[in-house]
């Protein structure tokens, strides 16, 4: 709850939060502080806050979140004149180059984002949402998320954990109507032997995002939550949202991520030359709209690559248009690993691994996982006479200050990498040629 007290207080004051994630460590936080000239650290780790302040002179304040408890003597906020077109927060991108880019969301576009999503999420004043995912993420915060439910006078139930033993009692106790989570969490809840012992009949809608929802899981969700509409959505912190709606044909409800939430979203599926592909063919999602960003924060060179001259955002996601007019996700151009909805830049991790004295070359690629969708494997070419285990590689990366969830969970030692016809490392061939052995280092 302290996060929400802080977030809404900062909105009223016109202070712009950088919504870093709880697992982020010194490497990521130093980057955000340098890029934004941040003046304060809000968190729960005082030692980490002091380390960030020591290396970033702009950071003058450390505020520990567990001390932000409301009391009877809390004063009112001073009156502040806020421009609705100013940023209300800086979200993190799932960018492929280095640590995440920062996405400025304005007060206007983020309010619109939540209202437009809420309009196709079937919310009213009696709705009760269970917030499970970390609230600094775009989906649980604003798609429609906490913002969308509170705007409708609805209730939000916060869960501090994600295990079935924590989630299922909250659903029955508070008569939860809406749940938003990633497929990896739904898989774990449905597999829990205690799931049948809880009254889940109040749930009207199950929102799923972050990774593709397989049809088998969708059917199982509908069985365990007998009154719930299973709603898949596709979204990005940069803006545009797609939601499955009840009035779509059954095949579109089962196979697609739906249609954009706004009538003013302009969607193009384009080929490598930027030309639109014919209906039914795969192309890159290229989009412009009222709540989609116009440029990353302090990244002019990157913006030139990511936006067309007429202002369309090149998302790097591959889609195909369904005959119903809805859209199917077919993969991505981005060099990302989608670990349970967390997008990890392969290049960021590769650059850190290359600083290890045992490594001559590295390529990080995804491998399939039944629960998380994908995990990361580091394919390594080692220097002569050296060895490197997954345990020592993980320890090396954590010591550099990287978030633990970004670390590879498997290594493959190779003599050489396959190359594409253009002379680049063929990650497609690496994925196809990896052995089927090797367990993840941690879950």
Describe this structure in words.
The protein is an alpha/beta fold. Helix content is 28%, strand content 25%. The strands form 6 sheets. Strands 6-5-7-8-9-10-11 form a 7-stranded mixed sheet, sandwiched between helices. Helix 13 (390-399) links the parallel strand 19 and strand 20 (410-413). The radius of gyration is 22 Å and the shape is globular.
Question: What's a quick, concise take on this entry?
Answer:
The chain is an alpha/beta fold and 443 residues long. The protein has helices spanning 2-13, 26-36, 46-55, 107-119, 138-142, 145-151, 164-174, 183-191, 215-224, 250-255, 300-306, 346-353, 390-399, 427-433; strands at residues 40-43, 61-64, 87-92, 102-106, 128-131, 155-158, 178-181, 205-208, 229-236, 239-243, 259-260, 266-270, 283-288, 313-321, 327-332, 336-339, 342-345, 359-369, 373-382, 410-413.
Features:
14 helices, seven-stranded mixed β-sheet, globular, 443 residues, disordered C terminus, single chain, alpha/beta, 25% strand, 20 strands
């Amino acid at each position: 709850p302290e996060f929400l007290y802080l977030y809404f207080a900062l909105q009223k004051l016109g202070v712009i939060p950088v919504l870093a994630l709880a697992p982020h460590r010194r490497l990521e936080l130093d980057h955000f502080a340098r890029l934004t000239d941040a003046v304060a650290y809000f968190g729960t780790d005082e030692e980490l806050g002091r380390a960030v302040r020591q290396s970033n002179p702009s950071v003058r304040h450390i505020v520990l979140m567990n001390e932000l408890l409301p009391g009877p003597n809390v004063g009112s906020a001073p009156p502040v004149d806020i421009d609705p077109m100013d940023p209300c927060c800086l979200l993190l991108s799932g960018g492929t180059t280095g640590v995440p880019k920062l996405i400025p969301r304005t007060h206007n576009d983020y309010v619109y984002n939540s209202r437009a999503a809420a309009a196709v999420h079937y919310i009213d004043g009696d709705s009760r949402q269970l917030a499970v995912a970390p609230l600094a993420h775009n989906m649980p915060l604003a798609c429609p998320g906490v913002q969308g439910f509170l705007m409708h006078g609805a209730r939000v139930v916060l869960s501090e954990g994600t295990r079935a033993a924590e989630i299922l009692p909250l659903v029955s106790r508070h008569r939860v109507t809406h749940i938003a989570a990633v497929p990896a969490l739904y898989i774990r809840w449905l597999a829990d032997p205690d799931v049948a012992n809880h009254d889940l009949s109040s749930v009207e809608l199950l929102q799923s995002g972050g990774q593709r929802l397989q049809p088998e899981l969708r059917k199982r969700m509908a069985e365990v939550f007998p009154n719930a509409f299973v709603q898949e959505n596709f979204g990005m912190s940069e803006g545009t949202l797609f939601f499955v709606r009840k009035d779509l044909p059954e095949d579109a409800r089962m196979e697609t991520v739906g249609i954009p939430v706004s009538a003013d979203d302009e969607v193009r599926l384009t080929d490598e030359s930027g030309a639109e592909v014919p209906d039914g063919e795969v192309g890159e999602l290229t989009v412009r709209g009222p709540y989609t960003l116009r440029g990353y924060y302090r990244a002019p060179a990157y913006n030139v690559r990511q936006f067309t001259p007429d202002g369309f955002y090149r998302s790097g996601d591959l889609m195909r248009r369904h005959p119903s007019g809805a859209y199917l996700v077919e993969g991505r151009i981005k060099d990302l690993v989608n670990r349970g909805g967390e997008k990890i830049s392969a290049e960021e991790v590769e650059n850190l691994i290359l600083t290890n004295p045992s490594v001559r070359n590295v390529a990080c690629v995804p491998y399939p996982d039944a629960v998380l969708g994908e995990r990361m494997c580091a394919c390594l070419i080692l220097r002569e006479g050296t060895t490197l285990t997954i345990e020592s590689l993980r320890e090396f990366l954590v010591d550099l200050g990287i978030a633990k969830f970004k670390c590879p969970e498997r290594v493959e030692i190779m003599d050489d990498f396959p190359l594409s016809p253009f002379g680049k490392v063929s990650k497609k061939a690496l994925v196809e040629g990896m052995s089927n052995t090797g367990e993840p280092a941690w879950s």
